[in-house]
Amino acid sequence: MAGQQVPSAxxxxxxxxxxxxxxxxxxxxxxxxxxCLRGVVARAxxxxxxxxxxxxxxxxxxWQLARFEHPRLGDAARILFGVTRGMSGLTLTERRxxxxxxxxxxxxxxxxxxxxxxxxxxxxxxxxxxxDFAGGAVAPRLGRARRPTRLGADVFAWEVxxxxxxxxxxxxxxxxxxxxxxxTARLASMNGPRHEQTxxxxxxxxxxLALLYRQAAAYRQAxxxxxxxxxxxxxxxxxxxxxxxxxxxxxxxxxxxTALAEIHPxxxxxxxxxxxxxxxxxxxxxxSALADPPSPIREEQQPWT
Amino acid sequence: MDLTTLxxxxxxxxxxxxxxxxxAGKEAVLDELAARGIxxxxxxxxxxxxxxxxxxxxxxxxxxxxxxxxxxxxxxxxAEYTVHKHGLRFYNRGIPDGYGWDAFFxxxxxxxxxxASRTYQYDAVFVLDPLxxxxxxxxxxxxxxxxIRRVHELIVQGYYDAGYRPIFIAADEPARRVDQxxxxxxxxxx
Lengths: 305, 190
Description:
The complex is a heterodimer. Chain A is mainly alpha-helical. Chain A contains 11 helices and no strands. In chain A, α4 packs antiparallel against α5. Chain A is elongated. The two termini of chain A are 21 Å apart. The mean pLDDT of chain A is 87. Chain B has one domain: P-loop containing nucleotide triphosphate hydrolases (Rossmann fold), CATH 3.40.50. Chain B has 8 helices and 4 strands, in the order αβαααβααβαβα. In chain B, α7 links the parallel β3 and β4. In chain B, α2 crosses α8, α3 packs antiparallel against α4 and α5 packs across α7. Chain B is globular and about 45 Å long. Chain B starts with a helix and ends in a 7-residue tail after the last helix. About 5% of the residues of chain B have low confidence. At the A-B interface, α2, α3, α7 and α8 of A face α3, α5 and α7 of B. Chain B: This is ATP-binding protein.
């Protein structure tokens, strides 16, 4: 199940609905939209089952309540939802009275004005959390380094850094392909699609695509069939879409290109071997279509669709 | 019960976990505990296992290696847990960290991890909030800071899944964090 955006009013309403029983969240709670939030889906041990999603939502809410640092409402919120020690199992009326006292409000004012405010704030925190989990296929952000990179002696840090390394390698392939696609388009415009320079650039673009497929295959081997944390799910090969339009490539041809780039990673070796490979004809068609694309390009003519 | 009584090497075992995502300042907190003479994990068992795996494979871990690696780390955590018989001890990560770590790599929890989480229970879990500088814009390694945050959050969720109610320790100087941890040690119930 993919995470989704939920209107804030609906989220507030469902958070408010949890007040009656407090935490832990029961199996019959009306939280059908909250359990679809990205942050909940990502935390669930088994995102395919409602009970697992509810458990994840329960944990997330407890964490957010623990982090609810509002000077006036923090303690009241924890009491109200029954997560403060000794509050679990009390009725809503009892919890409300204690929460109102803790925050210094008259109980009716608390019910009418403060409870909705607490629920809206919690819904806002859930929404911000979901936003944090909206990974998408975004190139690692770069910044100006003002100090040396030092990693703590922590396996988690090493592994996250290694994943960042794999992503950086993948995206470098995407940008290299993009550069070559732009070069081909420019040369085709300046000299025509059949000009030697244009054809050479198209061949280079195919080589770059093959290298990107090889990097994607390495990523798959290390981390599985989708980019970790990307939402919606994105296969590493699909990053080629972000480089710019290029003619579609069948999975069989992609597999051949990957294997070829594995054996001959250099541009000259690759170009020298391609004409005698099983995909020579497809490669020729691909380069021609890149240099002289059909017009107009239909949307369904995307690679890896 | 005061700290001296808890540390009593002849007293019943009390086990407390210090955890958090990368760059949460765990190492400094554990050093500070050690400096105060409070028993704590020296190093991190997972590090040596990770190095050993890499040396044996001659490459980084791949998706097919992860389950075996997780099992070995789990065994090390269990060994560290069971060898402690008396008095207080702080652990550098605990068994339920495995939930978060496997989730990060898209792996579902496996039966041995679930069983171990039920069998070997800690007395409390302290989660170190990420240090402020961890989101620094000029830290190139962690340019993708969301990923670090996700690791942290999946670890926290792992402890909730295992039935714990973690105690969160705000970003601060190591000594102040240790003060905060010691002030929040729950009173033993036995």
